[in-house]
Structures are given as C-alpha cells and as structure tokens.
Specification:
With 136 residues, this protein is mostly beta strands. The chain is built from no helices and eight strands. It has a single domain, classed as Porin, CATH 2.40.160.
C-alpha cells in the first residue's frame, strides 16, 4: 500500500499569461498555455517563482488533462526544471510533478515527486494549490 501525501512542501499561486486554442472538434478542445507563479516553501523547500508552458486537452465530459513543464527559480537564484501532469474538473485539480537539477545545494529535490491539490478561481484568474511530498 502507498501513502499518497507526505509532508507539506509548498503553496503556490499561478496566473495564465497566454492561452491559445490549437484545435477543436466534437469531442475535445486542445489548448496551449503559458503561466507564471509564486511559490512559498515549507519544510526545507525553497521559496521562488516559476514559469511554465504546456498543452491541455479538454473533453466534452468536463475533464481536462494537461502536460506542463517549466523553470523554477529559487529566491537565491538557483534554477530547477520541472515536468507535471494534471487532471481537472469543475475548477479543481490534482497534479503529479517532478523536479530536475544539477545543483549540489538542491540535490535532494532532483527526482522529487510531488502531489498538488488545488482550485482555479475564475474571478481572480488564479490557480492556487498546495504541494505535498509523495511517499513511496
């Protein structure tokens, strides 16, 4: 048995900076997007900001599946790349994300798998989420 969520690592707020419909048919809409966000770290996870981009496939059933990647820059100026996959419905989402770095200072984050849970607020145009360490 696997425990899903471990210690809280961060809270983040992301805002879309660009969105474009790539294709649309009777079953789905494919969207390309870019966003920027701020991250507040906990339990040794650094504060910083991030930028990312990716594609989303929104089905007629209301479920959206997205693939993201980007760069996370810590408040100390160190950079990590990340990749994530998420599913959302009714403005609520869950994300699996991992980080990649060559930094000796952030080596513990290399390959770290996080689970995020969050919600999109249309009025504020913000994605707010909390990230937890995945316990394997």
């Amino acid at each position: 048995m696997v425990t899903i969520g471990g210690r809280k690592l961060f809270e983040e707020i992301d805002r879309p900076t660009r969105m474009k419909i790539i294709s649309e048919n009777s079953k789905s809409i494919e969207i390309e997007a870019e966003w920027a966000g701020d991250l507040k770290g906990f339990n040794g996870f650094p504060d910083g900001n991030k930028v990312g981009s990716g594609t989303s496939l929104q089905g007629k059933n209301g479920v959206t599946i997205s693939h993201w990647e980007g760069i996370f820059t810590t408040s100390d100026g160190l950079e990590l790349s990340f990749k994530g996959r998420d599913m959302s419905k009714n403005n609520k989402f869950v994300v699996l994300r991992t980080y990649f770095t060559n930094s000796d200072n952030l080596n513990w984050m290399n390959g770290l798998i996080c689970i995020l849970e969050g919600e999109f607020t249309p009025e504020a145009n913000e994605f707010k989420s909390v990230g937890y360490e995945w316990l394997k």
